[in-house]
Queue: 3 jobs
Job 1
Amino acid sequence: MDPLLLRKLNAERRARRAVIHLTELEGGRDRIVREGDTVAGTLGSAIEAAFRSGKSGTFEAEGQNFFLNVHLPPARIVVIGAVHISQALAVVAKVSGYDLSVIDPRTAFATEERFAGVDLVADWPEDVLKVRPLDRYTALVAVTHDPKIDDLPLLQALKSGCFYVGALGSRKTHAKRVERLLAAGAPQQLLDRISAPIGLDIGAVSPAEIAVAIMADIIQAFRRRDLRTEAKP
């Protein structure tokens, strides 16, 4: 690979941007394609499918053979709230191949005993997210039921273009949440992206079942994400 192209690839990866290193197998010409770039024809369809699956491979288009080397940032889940659902979700996320962090300023809940082996931060989300910013490859899960803790990270997640934003609570609870966020200046268009009640509707009751429903919802959102959606300023 050309050194300039390699530097570009490494810079994209450090910035947690998804790219494909596209190589023409016969001629050896190569280039970097970022997620969201427009590529026409059947090659463009193959590139889109590769971004969604995260799998590298060869593809034939327009009489040429290409190798698509896919580089996706590791998808991660940021959970606001060290509750029982979070404990179960940490297990399900690990099995599903997702990194997971839990943030909760309530030290009675955010303990190493309850979250052994989990990336746990006992601090206010607004402080943590300043040094650990959200991005398009992050799912934000808010489960504290406390507006003082949940609301600000929900707004940040929407503005950052997180591929999934979910919040625990009944429809009535969510309606009040939407009222608060609208009053805080969030446009309805963004608030419509919040998955609430959180998770796929599988009739979940227990914390473990709710965690499975949330994980399924996250996986679906990631695999079906809008590849051309840009993060909000």
Note: Residues 45 and 107 are 48 Å apart (CA to CA).
Job 2
Amino acid sequence: MELNDQFLVSAGARPHPDGWLVAQAGRWTLASSPTLPVTPLLDEHGATAGWLLGWVVAPDGEFLHQRPTLPLGEVVAPDGDVEERLYRFAGRWACVLLSGRPRVHLDPAGSLAAVYSEQEEAVASTTTVLHHGDRALGERFGRRTLPPGQFFPAGLTNEPKVHRVLPNHLLDLETWQTRRHWPPAPVERVDDRDTEAVADRQRAIADGVRLTIESIAAHHRVLLPLTAGRDSRLLAAAAHRVLDRCTFVVFAYDDQRASDLAFARGAARRFDLDLRVLPPEPVDERAARTYLDRVGYDANEGKAGDFMLAAGRLPLDHAWLTGFAAEVGRGEYWKASDLPRNPSADELVQLVRLRPEPAYRDALETWRAGTPHQDVEELLDLAYLEMRVGCWASPQLYGAAPFTLSTIPVNRRDVFSAMLQLPTALRAAQRTAPAATALNWPELARLPYGRAPGLRGAPDALARGAQRVRDGAALGTRLRRALRR
């Protein structure tokens, strides 16, 4: 079984796949796939004080994972704080700090996903790695329960005694408990009448995504999604200056997403883009088992047909960049909902679009109690980042075809901060991504959303217009209720 880009950190040695690399620091052992970069962090005496795992992009574009070692001071201040140093970095990474109080930090989207077991004193990429060699792993396929689009929220996994490290949380390796480290307080939004402040946040989004993509393109040819939606357009615009290094990809789904294919083809003709059209492949039991083993059974096998099988026909020496997490900037969980002011645990389960499971309700209630927020919109923004991205999207990167690098260009602390600081009215109107897109590629931003360019997209335009009317009515109801409160 190939478990590319995965890892295991444990107190003492544990079974791991053959051919993995092993490093030790004190009582801690790191076993990692040869495809995962590992950069030792050295203290002032030259001793190993931790490891930086994964692909790390510095603010100046340097690939820090190409260095043989890094001084500990690059990621942590003398007082132990990491916010000003570690969280400058883009990419897809996890940081294991062993000096002071041992702990594990994840990148802002938790995209190098991690699960842990207090009982076994180990943290790993997936439950598959955590319990490598356990015969019971072969029985999981018959017990799988997650339908498409569903996930285990708020730190839960498919194993009761194994939990997930959420984005914005650290794992304490002494207590084996997680705790939130960001945001420390509700995020202060800018006033929608302050046009300069709004423009500053939109520029931060545009620049952050552009810098990440350009930095990666300096080292690898890149594969980018191209659809009729806002998120892929944000990425495409950010790649405007490196189009000669880009291949765009659209999956030819046989459903309501046909407008994506029409848009991609129209945009590729108009701007002379290198476009690959990939029909998803059927997923048989063997493919489903392979995919689920790679993601640790914390997802459904539905993405195996596109992310693993179809994408596997692309050049694997390229970097695979996804549009995950851009929805944080457009209020995906609340943009068209008539929201309760203080949702109950059961309502919160519904708002994050999960099945009504008692374990989900209890976990979400505990999560909410430790989540700083000024209103339900911010609560749901953090839920989207920490649940939909951290618990659904990020684990599935382990199941994608084994590209030389797979990452989320929006995955930056400065970008997420700017998104959360934008006024809710602007975000509800879906203006975040188009504004940031226009800053990097105005001509691309002027093409319509949700439809093909020109007359080919007229039927889709009518349907989208009707949906906007319905969404506007729902938003108006919400605003009237808010004013009455």
Note: The longest strand covers residues 48-57.
Job 3
Amino acid sequence: MAAAGPPRARTRGLLAGFANSADLGGLELPDGRRVPSGRIIRADTPAHVTEADVAAARAVGFEAVLDLRSHDEVRDCPHPLAQLAGYRSLPLIDPAAEARADISRYRTLGEIYSSSLQRNATHIAAIFAALAESPQGPGPVLVCCRAGRDRTGMVIALLLDLAGADREVIAADYALVPELPGPGAPASPGEGHSGGDAVLRMLDHVSAAYGSTSGYLRRLGLGNGTIDALRRRVEP
């Protein structure tokens, strides 16, 4: 297989008005491969966008928009692309499970992410099932939450890990998107958002507790066909 060319510079703000939007295209995979552009775009959900911004985003031709925010967040700030046929509200956080959890006992953001994998397992399973089942046409899938960071970052990190991306590559992708101020972001005791330590700790937990990301997804009840479909989302 021919060696891949040099990686293109990846920047935030791919979509006008969506400050924390970025294409996964160009990220390194095993054997010199790279994630093709236009497959998966991660983003925040801006509270205010112009009509021109919405028109430009619609023109991208998204096959699906997976909104990981809570139902309350969606109600208070509808997604700018909510009218697209492929839009789905899929909260990552299970409010009943969160209400029973004592988040204050976790020392780092990585521990919060790791514990979330079990606490919010049913919701996470629905997100990955929807991603696998979304049409893989010419347009990309948009994965988004409020800041495009924590919830989106967890899902994207697991997807890239499933495809075999080096974990330093995954951490760098996570760190590309800074946290946006405001309500809805988890507390980050002992860990800032400037690097990828939190997502690396989560992936280490996945390896220790489930053997691999594919093992975790199987524990969620996803079958081999669904897991293979998820890999194809980011593989050339």
Note: Strands lie at 22-23, 40-43, 64-67, 87-89, 141-144.
